Every structure is written in C-alpha cells, then in structure tokens.
Amino acid sequence: MGLPDHLVELAQKVSNWGRWGDDDELGCGNLLTAEATRRGVEAARSGHTVDLTVELKLDGIQIGQPAKRLNPIITFTSMNERDTFAPGIWAGSDDLLTMSTCAGTHVDALSHVAYEGYFYNGIPSDTISANSGATKLGAEKLPQITTRGVLLDLPLLKGVAGLDEVEPGYSITGEDLDAAAEMAKVDIQSGDVVLVRTGEMRHYRAGDRNRYALGVNYQLPGLSAYSIEWMHDNDVAGAFVDSYAYEAFPPTQADWSDTLIVHMLQIRDMGLIQGQNWDLEDLAVACADHGQWDFLLVANPEPLKGATSTPVAPMAIL
C-alpha cells in the first residue's frame, strides 16, 4: 500500500534531501546556528525556569501500546555495600536502568522512521540492525539544542483546557499554528523550535494513563498532514509536543494508508527533530503569567550511540 498521490507530492515538496550535502545526518539540526542560539539567549528576559520533563518511573507513560515499550525498571546492583578493596568506612549503592529510549520525554533520532526502504537523506533503512543499532542517523548524531523556543498554545487559542474538548481527534493545521504564533506575538524564524501544546498531558498528570496514551476510542488530537508544510515553510529546527502519539489520530485517509504520515514526512523527508511526552502545562501557565511565549530552550539529548530515540530533560528559561 503506497501513499496517496497528494501526499507523495507533499513529501517531495518538503524534502530536505541533499540540502546540506549528500552525507548529512543532522537534518534540520543544521538550522541550530550561533544566530539561533543568540536569539534564544535574548528571549531569556526574567530568568524564570520551567522544567518540561515527565518523571521516569515504573508506572509511567508506557502502557503496552505499541507493544514492547517499557517504562523504566530500576534494579539495584549494590545496596549500602562496602568495596572491600577501597579504604574508608563509606557504603555505596548503585543501580541498573532498563527502559525504552522513548519511554518518557524524548527526542527521536532521524533513524526512528523509514518508509519505502529509506531513512532521511536517502540513507538505506538496512543500515540499522539488532547487533549494531543505527549505524547511520543514530541518537548520538542529534544536536545539542540551545535556541529560541516558542510555545504554540492551541487550547489557549481555542479557549479550552485541551483540544480533545474541541474534538477528540482534532487535527492541527498550519492555519492553527499561524494563529497561535500571532496570538503569541512571535514571528517564527529559521532555527526556532516550536513546542505545540494540545493539553493532552493533563490526562497523564491526573493519573489517567490510558486516556493519555489511547485517547477517546483511539482518537487523539495532534499535528496533522496539514501542518507539515508549515514546519518546512517556517524552517523550524524542531517540533515537540505534549502528547503520546505526536500526531492526530485517526489519520486523514479512510483506509489509514497515511498512518504516521507526520512522522514519515517530517523525520524521513524533512529531517526535522521531533519528540513526544514534553510536559508543557507549567510552561503554559508561566508564559501566560509573563505575557511571553518565547524563551531560551535548552535540551541536550543523551548521545546513545546507535539508538533511534533518546531521553532528554528540556528546560525553558523565560
């Protein structure tokens, strides 16, 4: 089953293959220039900091859909133990962490999604294997993110707590993103990172993990195929959301032939940095209190060599 013709045309229109060279593995990370960093620093006006990370814990975001994704499991390898070969009277504890790299707040590597046999920039998808991981486009290739972030608060724009109150599977369009940027009085510039608030995180915060992960009858609000061109036209370096699926469900085609179309075209064709499970609730309050929706965003993905996603602990500084 191939993509519908209009989505094939859109993929070609937004493609960044070859834009930064045939061997490029950074994608839109190339837009994170010194100028973008300086713009971010200038946006840190009050020094107020907001943590955007969800806790990594056993009863965390993952509920088994998709299958094989694990919440963090802590196993102690030593507990209040002495090293008999070292001097002193100290006792130490160490632990082992087992988790899916996308279990909580994370950034996706450009090896996370492929279609028709290729990753970003025409790199064959068989460059990934169980033994060696992603030999191209692994998480270690993700850039350190220090740039201007912009909160696009869609529920605030619509006057609701969450987009699911407008429609359970609300599809965010480029027009929505333009309206949110206009409300924030921010002109999106090349190298900015947009944080798109849907309000879905409020369900997870309230303890309803199933609602957060599965929505209402598998209907979830999020970015749609009609937002992809906006990301390309505005030359953003990355987009991060406060939801589990990132994009709207169900997709646009009745036969679901465009399932994960936003992932596919943004990661595989654009090389856009993206990720999910960013907690934007406190940030939304802080931005409204300060009357400021741009800020310095600092987010350093863990450089897990060969991984296709990686944990991150982002911070917004207003």
Tags for this model:
alpha/beta; Glucose Oxidase, domain 1; seven-stranded mixed β-sheet; 15 strands; two-stranded antiparallel sheet; 318 residues; single chain
SSE map:
Blueprint: H1 5-14, H2 34-43, E1 49-51, E2 73-81, E3 92-98, E4 106-108, E5 128-129, E6 133-134, E7 145-153, H3 154-158, E8 171-172, H4 174-183, E9 193-197, H5 201-205, H6 209-214, E10 222-223, H7 228-233, E11 238-241, H8 261-270, E12 273-275, H9 281-290, E13 294-299, E14 309-311, E15 315-317
Parallel strand pairs: 7-9, 8-10, 9-11, 11-12
Antiparallel strand pairs: 1-15, 2-3, 4-14, 5-6, 7-13, 13-15
Helix pairs in contact: 1-8
Task: Write a structural description.
- With 318 residues, the protein is of the alpha/beta class.
- It has a single domain, classed as 3-Layer(bba) Sandwich (Glucose Oxidase, domain 1).
- Helix content is 23%, strand content 20%.
- The chain has nine helices and 15 strands.
- The chain has helices at 5-14, 34-43, 154-158, 174-183, 201-205, 209-214, 228-233, 261-270, 281-290, and strands at residues 49-51, 73-81, 92-98, 106-108, 128-129, 133-134, 145-153, 171-172, 193-197, 222-223, 238-241, 273-275, 294-299, 309-311, 315-317.
- The strands form five sheets. It has a seven-stranded mixed beta sheet with strand order 1-15-13-7-9-11-12, sandwiched between helices.
- Strand 5 and strand 6 (133-134) form a beta hairpin.
- Helix 1 (5-14) packs parallel to helix 8.
